[in-house]
Amino acid sequence: MKTIASILAAAIACAMPALAAGDASPFVCTGQVGFVCGGVPQRFVLLVATHDGRYSFSHSYWIEEPGAHSFRSGDIVHIAGKVVPPTGKIRDEKPGENAYVATNVQTIAHGSFPAPAPSDAGEINTGRITGKYVCVSGVVSSVVHDEMNAQWNWFVLRTRKGNVYVAASNLEQPYAKLLAATDAKVEVRGLLHKQNTWRRFIGPYLIASGEECVRVVGEPPSAETRHELSKDDFAADFRAIQLGKVDFTHRVKVSGTLVASGRDMCFLEASDGALLKVVPLAGSLMPEPGTHVVASGFASLDFGGLRLGDTVLEPSGGTAQLRPHPAPTKISDLYRMARNPDINSTDSLRRIATVEGSVANSTENIQAGKVIRIEQQGLSMSVDASSVPESRLADIRKGCILRVTGVCNAEFETDPSGTSFPRFTGFTIVPTPDDGVVVSIQAPWWTTGRLVAVIVSLLGLLIVFFSLTLVLKALSDRRGHQLYEEKVAHVRTEAKVEERTRLAIELHDAISQTLTGVALQIDSADLLNNGENKPLGKFLDTARWMLGSCRRELQDCLWDLRSRTFDEKDMTEAVNRAIAPNTGGAKMTVRFNVPRRLLSESAAHSILRMVRELVVNAVRHGGATRIWIAGECSEGHIAFSVRDNGCGFDMAAAPGPRDGHFGLQGIRERVRAAKGRVEIESAPGKGSKITVTMPEGE
């Protein structure tokens, strides 16, 4: 059986050619698993040998179906898969690099990692050994979940030469396990990596990997054995602290009175009078301000002096000693001291002070953000109101004079470890309990802002009034024009009706009586013939039929002249009125969706005459009992059709003008004059459908 070393050597030899072909698809390789992450898809990384005989990590590999393969760090695996172009959908995928997706993973054996090279924070933070497998010892602090990938945890490894940031897979180093190791001395093994893409933190950090990659080598000190800060530990120089005397990698403790608490920090006044900024451990309970406590936390420096992070606060039962309220301090004096700090004192950057100022933000803004902005002589500062009761916040109005007593802390944009040139941004004051926030003078009701608001409102009302006046005048003028036009149109309509009535009477008296006389003459001639001359009788019958058709046409014309059909504003109603005398009991369905405004009077007259002619033909000659009339307007054309369920007719044998039938011929001539077309669909026994299409303008 092959040894682990020989298997690993062969695996690395096989893996290198495949990994070099970054654009190969598919791929096959063998290697040792460096670390495994959770998530979908699941990610793992292989170790490969470098030219100097050490080991580093190769590409990241993703498994599309997590849980289908069971392996852990140190396993030697054989992988088959495919190389896909970057999609941006895979977590931790590097821009512009191909993704290696494993479709089959087989575990060959399990081997131990190579011995790591010992290192320290000073060497690691230079970044010169990035990519090496190293071992570092230190104390665990600040354990947090990764803010972008829940499958990773981060913690700070505190050493005498500085801090090391460590990332660990949650599968192999659960969050609870790391949290339990807080303040313990551990040995961490892993690959040194440098983030240079999308992370906020850009710099070297350690990826914990291998068996027992985070091993506890020293238990945390007990509460009794922790070093207690004394006055000697607070250096006179606010930029330095006597860290050499004590091992400050572990938690230290300090006793004192909790004087003020804010959103994510509180301030402790030690027994010797020193003022410390304390950041409580996430999720821990914070005692009420004014309580004597013992604070155990990790010591570090900021621009204001000593700071305790990840601190556990426990009431001690001692006697709290609160300072009397100091005399009011001008904001301008605080700014002057912050910009020209006393190198022998931190009092210029962090001190208990009383400040008066005018509230600059509204009550709604204060209650939403728990921050009050106060101004004095053109300068402003923030008040952390997270511990102020809601009832007291409700009394604070914009413009009132507020007296605030609390810890005045200078804020900076930069971190003291990253630059020697701090950038001061302003002060935040964290009020003391009880009377830390007091309204000295209520805001006056009649303010400049309200006066401006009243003036603007009055101007707005005047503008609205004049605007409404102009709008009403315009509406009145428009309505007057409409009434005038309607009156003129009514007068014109009445004049047309009177004129048409006069013409109808004259036609009836003149032509109608003449046609009646002609009809009597034809009947008399037919009686005298008495059937003896058959051709003559046939001609007389034709003349009689044509005369009857002429009389009916004249009657329709007289009806049109007397009717108000052509004055209808709706074409559907106009069609219904035009065909009403000629339906002969047939059921009509009319849907004429053509706006009347698109048709001139002559066009409307022609359409109604054609529709009526087609209806008369359908009833008289086709014997129809059901007729459908439809019309529409689209793409610059007007189209209408008349369809019936009558007997239909044969187009080839249909009677024409020679037989005295002028209906269809008259329709064709009207449509031809309008540059349109007529389509006839009919067959004996199947009814008929006549469709007419004309341009709008014609």
What characteristics describe this protein?
OB fold (Dihydrolipoamide Acetyltransferase, E2P); alpha+beta; 5 domains; 29% helix; 5-stranded mixed barrel; 698 residues
Describe the structure.
This protein has 698 residues and is an alpha+beta fold. The protein has five domains: 4-110, OB fold (Dihydrolipoamide Acetyltransferase, E2P) (Beta Barrel), CATH 2.40.50.140; 117-218, Nucleic acid-binding proteins (OB fold (Dihydrolipoamide Acetyltransferase, E2P), Beta Barrel), CATH 2.40.50; 231-315, Beta Barrel (OB fold (Dihydrolipoamide Acetyltransferase, E2P)); 331-441, Nucleic acid-binding proteins (OB fold (Dihydrolipoamide Acetyltransferase, E2P), Beta Barrel), CATH 2.40.50; 568-695, Histidine kinase-like ATPase, C-terminal domain (Heat Shock Protein 90), CATH 3.30.565. Helices cover 29% and strands 33% of the residues. It has helices spanning 4-20, 121-126, 175-180, 331-339, 363-369, 390-393, 448-529, 534-562, 571-579, 601-620, 663-673, and strands at 27-36, 42-49, 55-63, 75-84, 99-110, 117-118, 133-145, 152-159, 162-169, 185-194, 204-208, 214-218, 252-261, 266-270, 275-280, 292-302, 305-315, 350-359, 371-376, 379-384, 401-412, 424-431, 437-441, 587-593, 626-634, 637-644, 677-682, 688-695. The strands form five sheets. A five-stranded mixed barrel has the order 1-2-3-5-4. Strands 7-8-9-11-10 form a five-stranded mixed barrel. It has a five-stranded mixed beta barrel with strand order 13-14-15-17-16. The N and C termini lie far apart (101 Å).
